[in-house]
Fold this protein.
Amino acid sequence: MVNENGATLYSFCQSVRGASHVERGTPCEDASGAYSADNGAYHVVAVADGHGDFRCLRSQRGAELAVSVAMDFLKEVAEEKLSASDAVRERFFHDMFTNPRYRQLEFRRWSDVILSRWNDALRRDYDANPPAPDALASLPERLRQPDAVPHMYGSTLMAALYFPPALMLLQQGDGRCEVFYTDGAINQPIPWDTRCEGNVTTSLCDPDATISFRSQILDLRETPVAACYLGTDGVEDAYRDTYTDLGESHTLMGGVHCFYKALSCEAAERSPEALTAYLSETLPDFSARGQYGYGGSWDDVSVAGIVRPETLSRFAETWRRDVRRYGLEEGLFWKADALRSGARKYEILSKRCEEARNRLDAVREEYSVYHEELGHLRHNKESLEKERGNHEEELAALREEIRQRERLQAACDGSLKIRRRELEEAEKNFAAYDADYQAIKEDKRRILEELLTLSQAQAAPGNTPTQAAPGGAQTQVASADTQAQKMLSQAQKTLIQAQKVLFQAREKFVQTQAAPGSVQTPTPSGDTQAQAAPGDTPTQEKPIGTQTQEKPSEP
């Protein structure tokens, strides 16, 4: 803080991270600077806004370099003029105020030097710390070329040199310069570039950056200045009337004027350190919610200024009323907007409420029907639960009976295996006896045929019966016949015994199959005799010895 002709004058600056950057976890891409000469001879302030485009990988660093280069150069200009003679200095200011061509060339020289030094600085920064390969891979091919390096550092710039008797202003890109005069007037003296609208702005990295610089010089002897403020677009984008005249206090740029009026009231009462602390505390909330809590820009915010507190204090009360009025009108707009929106919503919600009532009535009718049906169902449920108790007892009895049947079936399965083995053994024995029986029958047939042949030979005409001696041929024949009959009788007895054994075996097998829970087994095919019913007796063949044997006739 220094004195100028008995008046206090100081400079300040502050940059804060925007709400969107806080949310995304990205750094602040704004930069700002302020300098006051020890003897109060001059003051320099600057702000820069690094581009948020993902292709501008180092816009934060670009903004820092822009502020540093501009401030250093303007200090050099001021020091150069201070070291010159009064005549040279007077001649310089005279030409700057009265000769447009000289003024244009001088500001063009300033912009050329600043731009050249900025490019040199970013080249050194790039060479000392080149980007990682994966960061470069995300850029389009044309931005990976050496001549595209400045685009990575893209930034705007606005600077002011307060050097009595002049205030000299320089700007590239968007942002606003707000000047408060000692008579209470306010304006934005730097010509506006219409290419800077919304999210579009000119930049230090543009090919035509030199000719895109805008400048202005104010004669402090004719229009004394109470304050000069520089602000990035994070300020102006927080107001609805930045680009449109909305009427009443919401004239074109009314919100930006209101912001700096409020800031002037604070500057009139605070020291440079206290004002910087105030901005550090309030600007983050301003980025998120705006000045009146209806929404901010969500962008980084940078503010720098040169202020004369004593002069500002004379208008503080008027400006506070202006700020209050603007806030009330802003609040009135949003309340009216809420009412307009509320009226539409009221009609919609009213219809929805009526529809909800109708649906409720319909549901109540359905509820009464369902309630009655539920009563019947509950009654049926109680009846079914009683019946279920009875059925469960029956089911338990049936399960127990099934378990008993399963046990009997398991026992019968064992008996069935035994009976099958007995049947197989009986059939095997029967087959052996049957073979013997058939052999005996064959022997019987053969003997009978032999006897018949002998009988026929004796009965033939001309044959004289020979008196056989005792023990002769007839005796031998009779003896052989008797012997055959005995053998046949014995075979029949054996066969009958085998048939009885076979019958008993089959009867046991049939009884086993007929037992409860047993499995019926079909009678094997190929049996020589049908399965006999209980009590049946197998048919016995009459023994051969009981037949009447025809004797040959006597001659």
